């Protein structure tokens, strides 16, 4: 059993920033990066809105920089997931999937969120065989092919534009008659000759055979008309769900399963903090995640200092 000051669960911008601040504050800090170090930014080809990079920066490169910076100040990174926690008493118990056990005086949860899926027939069994949630990872396989993209937010628009560098044709299926994404991306999408938008429609079924996806069954939600559109792949960008299943029952969550925090990242358990997309259903940006990671680490430092001075006072005869 290893004893540490701060355990950081999660390896996205929030977790890395928390790690940088925590280790720079001279707290012994272990960051559990999970199975996808870097988090969702590693699925983004270019971040054009992260301040300090006027020409944009690749998500993977930014994640590598974060990690270099955190380890430079002494953060120990563990390439494993936490699969058990006990927040009922301090120090808090954490166990990795590989069986390593830790006792942490303070914990920062920054487990982020995962792609929301359509939940229609044929989807689950086609993941990796024609259904994807990552254009950066999979666009290459659809060179000169026809794909469907589902969604109307920034992710769907941004990823569609990226996909057009590869595909012959892209059909963007959105359930309403108006995009949610930013006007600048909407303009670029609507001007792109490779993109055809199918409004007021949903993918009702993913049609597939032994070689993978061959069509998307589309339903117009206004007319009820159903059409099978022959395609080679379906990319789903319809938002995210917080990664909180591990914490259900041990920490307060909101009605959508996001961790409830005050404005400084405190959860309902003193000494446990949360940062990034796992507690933010509104902004969900790399930069806001990083900012909240910083706040959580500063709060963890304050908390530990306060506990230390209380302990010193109680030891004074
Ligand atoms: P989002 O903004 O929540 O958009 C999700 C989209 O999926 C919406 O258009 C929604 O439709 C649609 N949708 C949800 N459930 C659906 C379902 N079951 N079937 C069909 N369509 C469904 O999520 P996001 O696009 O992933 O963006 C998340 C956050 O990251 C946002 O704050 C966004 O600004 C940010 N982001 C920014 C950039 C950038 O600036 N370059 C890039 C990516 C993401 P409705 O519109 O009808 O609700």
Summarize the structure.
The protein is α/β, with parallel strands linked by helices. The protein has 6 helices and 19 strands. β15 (212-220) and β16 (226-230) form a beta hairpin.
What does this structure look like?
The chain is an alpha/beta fold and 317 residues long. The chain folds into two domains: 189 residues, FAD/NAD(P)-binding domain, CATH 3.50.50.60; 120 residues, FAD/NAD(P)-binding domain (3-Layer(bba) Sandwich). The protein is built from six helices and 19 strands. Helix 1 runs parallel beside helix 2, helix 1 packs parallel to helix 6 and helix 4 runs parallel beside helix 5. It is elongated and about 75 Å long. The structure holds NADP nicotinamide-adenine-dinucleotide phosphate.
Key phrases:
single chain; 317 residues; alpha/beta; FAD/NAD(P)-binding domain; 7-stranded mixed sheet; 5-stranded parallel sheet; 25% helix; 28% strand; binds NADP nicotinamide-adenine-dinucleotide phosphate
Question: What's the CATH topology name of the largest domain?
Answer: FAD/NAD(P)-binding domain
Q: Could you tell me how far the N terminus lies from the C terminus, measured between alpha carbons in angstroms? A: 32 Å
CATH architecture of the largest domain: 3-Layer(bba) Sandwich
CATH secondary-structure class of the largest domain:
Alpha Beta
Topology pattern, helix = H, strand = E: EHEEEHEEEEEEHEHEHEEEEEEEH
The average pLDDT score comes to 94
**Helical residue percent band:** 10-25%
Q: Major sheet, described briefly?
A: 7 strands, mixed
Q: Please name the fourth-level CATH homologous superfamily of the largest domain.
A: FAD/NAD(P)-binding domain
């Amino acid at each position: 059993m290893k004893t540490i000051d701060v355990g950081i669960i999660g390896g996205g911008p929030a977790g890395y920033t928390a790690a940088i601040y925590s280790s720079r504050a001279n707290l012994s800090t272990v960051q559990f990066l999970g199975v996808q170090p870097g988090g969702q930014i590693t699925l983004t080809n270019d971040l054009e809105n992260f301040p300090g990079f006027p020409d944009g920066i690749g998500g993977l490169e930014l994640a590598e920089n974060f990690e270099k910076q955190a380890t430079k100040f002494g953060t120990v990174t563990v390439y494993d997931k936490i699969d058990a926690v006990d927040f009922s008493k301090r120090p808090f118990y954490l166990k990795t999937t590989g069986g390593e056990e830790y006792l942490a005086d303070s914990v920062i949860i920054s487990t982020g969120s995962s792609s929301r899926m359509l939940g229609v027939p044929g989807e689950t069994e086609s993941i990796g065989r024609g259904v994807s949630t990552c254009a950066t990872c999979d666009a290459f396989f659809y060179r000169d092919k026809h794909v469907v993209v589902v969604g109307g937010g920034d992710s769907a628009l941004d990823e569609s534009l990226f996909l057009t560098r590869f595909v012959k044709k892209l059909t963007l299926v959105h359930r309403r008659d108006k995009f949610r994404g930013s006007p600048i991306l909407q303009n670029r999408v609507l001007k792109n000759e490779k993109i055809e938008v199918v409004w007021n429609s949903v993918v009702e079924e993913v049609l597939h055979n032994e070689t993978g996806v061959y069509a998307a069954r589309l339903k117009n939600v206004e007319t009820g008309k159903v059409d099978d559109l022959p395609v080679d792949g379906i990319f789903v960008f319809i938002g995210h769900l917080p990664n909180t299943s591990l914490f259900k029952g041990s920490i307060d969550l909101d009605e959508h399963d996001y961790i409830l925090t005050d404005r400084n990242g405190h959860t309902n358990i003193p000494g446990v903090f949360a940062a990034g997309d796992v507690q933010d259903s509104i902004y969900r940006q790399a930069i806001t995640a990083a900012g909240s990671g910083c706040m959580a680490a500063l709060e963890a430092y304050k908390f530990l200092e306060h506990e230390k001075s209380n302990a010193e006072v109680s030891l004074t005869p």
